[in-house]
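Incident review: delayed structure delivery

Summary: a single-chain prediction request sat in the queue longer than the usual turnaround. Root cause was a stuck worker, restarted by the on-call engineer. No data loss occurred. The affected request and its eventual output are reproduced below so the record is complete for anyone auditing the incident later.

Affected input:
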Amino acid sequence: MNNPRLFLWVALALILFLNYETWMKDYGTTPASAAEVAAAAKAAPDLDAAPPQVAGDSGSASPVPAAAAPTAALAGASTPEAEPAGRNITVRTDVLDLTINLRGGELNRADILQYPKVKNEPGVPVRILRNEGPDSLYVMQSGLAGDAASGARPTHRALYESNFESFVMLQEADTLKVPLTWTSADGVTVTKTFVFHRGSYKVDLEYSVQNAGTAPWAAASYVQIKHDMPPVERSYFNVDSYSFTGPALWDGTKYRKLKIEKTDDQNVALDVTKGWFAALEHHFVGAMIPAADVAYHYTLKARGHEYLATVMGPTQTVQPGAAGTFKETLFVGPKLQAQLEPIHPELSRVADYGMLTMISRPLFYVLKNVHQLFGNWGWTIVFTTLLLKLLFYPLSEASGKSMAKMRTLGPRIKNLQETYADDREKLGRAMMDLYKREKINPAAGCLPMLIQLPVFLAFYWVLLESVEMRQAPFIGWINDLSSRDPFFILPALMAIAMFVQYKINPKPADEMQAKVMMILPLVMSVTFAFFPSGLVLYWVTNTVLGILQQWNINRRLGAA
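Output delivered after worker restart:
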């Protein structure tokens, strides 16, 4: 086996894999025709516009049965009776700027104050929740539902009241409570309170029920996310298009991404304990996290690019003259893993690293801890690359020695090629005998590359998915490690470093291989030119460290 040839195939395989993945994302799915879309919409089940209903009331707390799947209208679906729009109230904390509509207490706008939509434009923050039209709808609805015979309930269509137009978190306060009230004709008062926390994107939702009536009052709490999700334009130059967008859940045992374009994922109903349901967008998420020790009923209904994800809890009964409480937990914000994990141990999976999660997650935690030392994600990447190089140093040392010995064998290999120019079989045996006598493994030089490949891909997903590195500056011209180098300086440095590495490594015996290896740095740098600059920084650092290591090995063997 010839070492340079194997190295070449590994490098080319990497390029082909990355380009194939890009092509599949851009062109792999054939867009449906207008007729197909219309036929699918016609065949889709009609979605009831009414609020969720409990299947029945047993008079005590009990899980909602599967038949009690919540139903509600998707954006654009007709409603039997259009209620007048409710008044919006504004809420501002140190990290969130929201509006809550008094019609149902709907969260219909959420701006993330510390995350500008565009770098260096802090006046235009990222907007997660929004209600700006049929193609820009992403809202969180919640309420208490009853069965068909139970009478009025404060659902997401009920009209609440508030004594204030706006709420602002005071500098000395750690929490901000936003109470809304609803009163029924039979003497039941419900106070729906949103609780916001300083520095946090978690929102606690609490219902306080006072039953001043004469009959037991039963209800089940629910939360739902209504999302109109137009298809993301796939582009080699748009890194946002590579991140999964859509509903995802933890079903108590595993993480599931629901692809609403697939028939099997367009109507989902299951009972879940210790789970969560979320709507994912690149770097940001809206999530519903029910109580861990209670079975909730999860449903998803999708039509076209619209979907409705709902979680509904067990029925609880409040006796006459008594009080009751219902509680839910919401999350509206960036996928900050330090905030997600305390809410639910598996909620950090919304930072979706794909198939390489088992490598990417530990890698992220190493990066996060190193970042605490440097305070700069660019130097964090450089230092972490050095740590990885040290971790694999014994293997790299053995590989480097083998490659250095291969370099000294160049004249003898060339002599064998001239001697057996007309007999490839004898040439192969002669070279293997030479390798055996000199105790050289021709494949040893490729082992670091084979190990480095999954680490490289894991780095790619960490840089792509970790909001912690979104718009993170490094030095000088690199002001966003999650996007490409604006002046392509790092890809140029990468080409130079790879060429130097080619020069100090043993030259391939095959002239054609040597020519391909010589132009490989240019091919790789062009391929990487539009990758996140943090990823190119990792590759440049790794290559430079490899050059220094190989130079030192060559020097030591030359002096020996």
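Verification: The longest strand covers residues 306-318.
Action items: add queue-age alerting; document worker restart procedure.
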